[in-house]
């Protein structure tokens, strides 16, 4: 059978049929992961810039889980001698497909290893950037990755274990991820936050904490980029965000639970609104409220970092899909409180994209303009980063009364903002809404919209 060519960020990578067979099922999954690999390139470019700023050169980067080895090659081609790269492979001979692919000149000094990922990470070298493209479970590598990463080093986690994370086999989630999850409207976000809770525990064992840069869940994988920070204070702060979430299976009410060290006989009264619904419709003998998690409930986007990543992505290839992904993340992490703010933000973001697209005349003039955009965005981000980031998004259809038409997302977002709540779309689900409003308020607003619009059909 013929070999297969994957084109990523303008480079062709060829893999023989023999290699594909060796990878087995992993091949089919790995070849779809071009977005996380592109995100890793743009994240690394930011890390390099930061480290160079403090006089550090020659960063060490590792693609720790054996796979296609494309990420390591992309970094080396892009950043040449600014970084040293180690790529873990499935076979020892350097003449394998992983070794042969890519631009021969720039990729000649990539080091190859053929080891179990934890053994490779524990080999004594300190890394500044660790990329874990795990086929399936990623949490078993987190502890060693947190141990060998430098202070302020960046860890990029890709997990394809979606069937477990989305609770297809309920016994696997507590066993592997030490938490509970269920199939509900925000399960994609739960998956990300469940892995982050595992990261918080793994890092804290080495007295480390983290700061999340970005998260994403798409049809093939979950991606998390986080900066690891040394020190007990950071470790405690990350652990403090790990909490359980009470979820009502009937009315979809959710609430982040504050657990204390002291035993409280009557736990915080959870007021879900099942009493508003018809009690006879409930098929539950026990309380329909369950405890999900523990999951990480802190902020999951860093607007400044994502903005800079997006700038880099525009420079590299303005039409690449990561540009729009990063843009939606920026819209989401600001989660604007008014339509006017959203218009301003969109103008800021699309403005510099158009500049980059007009290739040829962009070398001198936009420098001043660009720094102005940077400045205005940073001011914007500061305004919103002082506010709490709303945890767990909502779906309009879950909260629409049965038999009614689901209102348009834009209408719901507009109405939420009119009522004084922050609201935006979310990258986790095209139909999702992230808002500071509570579930009860969200329902009330949807009911209002439904009452105002005459029934069609
Ligand atoms: Zn309820």
Beta-strand level of the residues, as a percent range?
15-25%
What can be said about the biggest beta sheet? 7 strands, mixed
CATH architecture of the largest domain: 3-Layer(aba) Sandwich
Low-confidence stretches: 360-365
Overall shape? globular
What is the CATH topology classification name of the largest domain?
A: Rossmann fold
CATH superfamily of the largest domain: Vaccinia Virus protein VP39
Number of separate helices: 17
Q: What number of structural domains do the residues give?
A: 3
Mean pLDDT: 88
Protein architecture, described:
The protein is α/β, with parallel strands linked by helices and 457 residues long. It has three domains: 239 residues, Rossmann fold (3-Layer(aba) Sandwich), CATH 3.40.50; 83 residues, no CATH class; 59 residues, 2-Layer Sandwich (Phenylalanyl-tRNA Synthetase, Chain B, domain 1). Helices cover 41% and strands 19% of the residues. It contains 17 helices and 15 strands. A hairpin with a 2-residue loop joins β1 and β2. About 1% of the residues have low confidence.
Brief digest:
The protein has helices spanning 17-23, 25-30, 34-53, 70-79, 97-100, 117-121, 142-148, 162-165, 172-177, 187-204, 232-240, 303-316, 321-334, 339-357, 366-385, 409-418, 439-452, and strands at residues 4-8, 11-15, 59-63, 83-88, 111-113, 127-134, 149-159, 208-217, 222-230, 242-248, 254-256, 289-296, 394-395, 423-425, 432-435. It is an alpha/beta fold and 457 residues long.
Task: Note the topology.
Elements: E1 4-8, E2 11-15, H1 17-23, H2 25-30, H3 34-53, E3 59-63, H4 70-79, E4 83-88, H5 97-100, E5 111-113, H6 117-121, E6 127-134, H7 142-148, E7 149-159, H8 162-165, H9 172-177, H10 187-204, E8 208-217, E9 222-230, H11 232-240, E10 242-248, E11 254-256, E12 289-296, H12 303-316, H13 321-334, H14 339-357, H15 366-385, E13 394-395, H16 409-418, E14 423-425, E15 432-435, H17 439-452
Helix pairs in contact: 3-4, 3-12, 7-10, 10-11, 12-13, 14-15, 16-17
The protein binds zinc ion.
């Amino acid at each position: 059978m013929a070999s297969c060519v994957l084109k990523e960020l303008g480079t062709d990578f060829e893999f023989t049929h023999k290699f594909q067979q060796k990878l087995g099922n992993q091949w089919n999954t790995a070849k779809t992961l071009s977005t996380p690999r592109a995100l890793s390139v743009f994240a690394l470019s930011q890390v390099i810039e930061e480290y160079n700023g403090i006089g550090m050169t020659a960063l060490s980067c590792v693609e720790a889980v054996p796979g296609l080895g494309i990420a390591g090659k992309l970094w080396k081609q892009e950043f040449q001698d600014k970084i040293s790269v180690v790529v873990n492979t499935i076979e020892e001979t350097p003449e394998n497909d992983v070794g042969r692919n890519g631009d021969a000149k720039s990729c000649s000094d990539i080091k190859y290893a053929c080891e179990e990922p934890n053994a490779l990470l524990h080999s004594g070298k300190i890394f500044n950037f660790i990329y874990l493209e795990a086929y399936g479970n990623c949490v078993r590598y987190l502890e060693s990755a947190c141990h060998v990463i430098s202070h302020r080093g960046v860890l990029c986690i890709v997990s394809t274990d979606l069937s477990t994370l989305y609770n297809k086999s309920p016994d696997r989630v507590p066993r592997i991820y030490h938490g509970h999850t269920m199939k509900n409207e925000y399960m994609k976000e739960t998956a990300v936050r469940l892995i982050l809770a595992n990261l918080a525990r793994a890092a804290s064992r080495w007295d480390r904490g983290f700061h999340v840069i970005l998260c994403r869940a798409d049809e093939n994988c979950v991606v998390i980029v986080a900066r690891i920070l040394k020190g007990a204070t950071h470790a405690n702060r990350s652990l403090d965000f790990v909490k359980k979430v009470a979820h009502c299976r009937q009315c979809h009410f959710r609430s982040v639970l504050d657990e204390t060290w002291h035993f409280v006989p009557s736990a915080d009264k959870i007021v879900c609104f099942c009493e508003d619904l018809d009690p006879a419709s409930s098929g539950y003998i026990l309380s329909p409220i369950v405890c999900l998690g523990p999951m990480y409930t802190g902020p999951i986007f860093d607007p400044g970092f994502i903005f800079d990543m997006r700038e880099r992505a525009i420079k590299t290839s303005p039409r690449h899909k990561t540009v729009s992904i990063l843009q939606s993340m920026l819209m989401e992490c600001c989660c604007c409180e008014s339509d006017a703010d959203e218009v301003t933000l969109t103008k800021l973001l699309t403005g510099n994209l158009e500049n980059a697209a007009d290739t040829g005349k962009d070398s001198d003039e936009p420098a001043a303009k660009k720094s102005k955009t940077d400045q205005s965005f940073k001011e914007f981000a500061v305004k919103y980063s002082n506010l709490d980031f709303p945890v767990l998004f909502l779906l309009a259809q879950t909260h629409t009364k049965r038999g009614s038409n689901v209102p348009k997302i834009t209408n719901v977002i507009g109405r939420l903002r009119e009522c004084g709540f922050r609201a935006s779309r979310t990258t986790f689900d095209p139909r999702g809404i992230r808002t500071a409003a509570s579930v009860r308020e969200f329902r009330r607003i949807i009911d209002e919209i439904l009452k105002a619009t005459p029934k069609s059909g």
